[in-house]
Design brief:
By secondary structure, the chain is mainly alpha-helical. It is built from 15 helices and no strands. It is 79% helix and 0% strand.
Length: 362
Amino acid sequence: MRIHIKIKLWLFVIFLFWAPLGLTNPTPETNTNPQYLNNEIEYLKKLIQLNANQMENLHHEMGALHRDQVNYKLEKDLLEKAYSASYQTINFYLAVLVAGLGVLGALSVRKLENDYKHELDNLKTLIVKQENELKEVAKLKESVEDLSNALSLKLMDIIEKAVHHHNNNNWPWAMEWVSKGLLIDPDNLLLLATKKRCLFYLWQWGEAAETSKKMVELTVSHPEHMRAVFELLEMLALNKDDDFDKYCQHYKPTIDKEYNYELVVNYLRLFKTIIDDDLEQTREILSPMCNSSIGASSVYGFEQLWPLNVAKYTLQSLKTPMQQKYLNTLINFYSGSIDTDGVKQILWPQDPPLPETEPSNS
């Protein structure tokens, strides 16, 4: 539309420039012709009317252009206002969003801080609790140590009294103190040995054998293990225990490490046959020993290996004089007081000993 307006303006300017030229330069023929002048005047009127129409059209077009400009400005203002409003709205929502996120972040940080403080308080409480528990444990440990020391002192006093009554042959009183001591320390070897001897002297040989079994178990890696084995076998023989042979065979490697197994087992078998009043079996075991081709022989040092106190104490409990005679002979032989010839004179004063046979393994 603007292009059309510009074209019309240029045409109007050209007309204004050429019109005076046509009026000021008439030809000689036309200046004197009235009809020509009238025609020119009419033409000029039409031209003026045309220009007036064009000016009116131009005025209308200029008005339209002005309205367009006004409308454009209004639209522009409206768009600017709308953009400004939208921009402000966006900024508002962004501000609200940022503020909301900030509030949420602040709340999260606050919550995290509160949680941390709560956990820290719990940790402090736990530390205080553990410190109190450690103090209680320390007190308990101190109390246990005091109790342990007190029990140790009490146990030493009990052992001293038990041994005192044992050495004075007060077996029942000794057993009373031994029982109290074993409540404190059930595996005390000194108390168990005292208990075994007291039971033996009180003729409770079955319980003495059970006590010997426990001592053997407790002394496996102890220097007293061998002695405990010997005393167990002696108690089993004295008690007429059917497990005697089984235990002898079981502990054969133990005895063989340091001693003559045949010498030890022969003594135990002789002791057992005399207690069982199987004197015929006693003579069968003794006969090869007394009928040796090397002549009379003696046993030396056996009593240092194995005190014969049990056999000596058992003499008074035997039922028949023959048992006592045989056991006394056994004690004298193994203590080295008599040799094999002395044994023959006592046990076979008239009859010769039995023919030499291999020792029985039963």
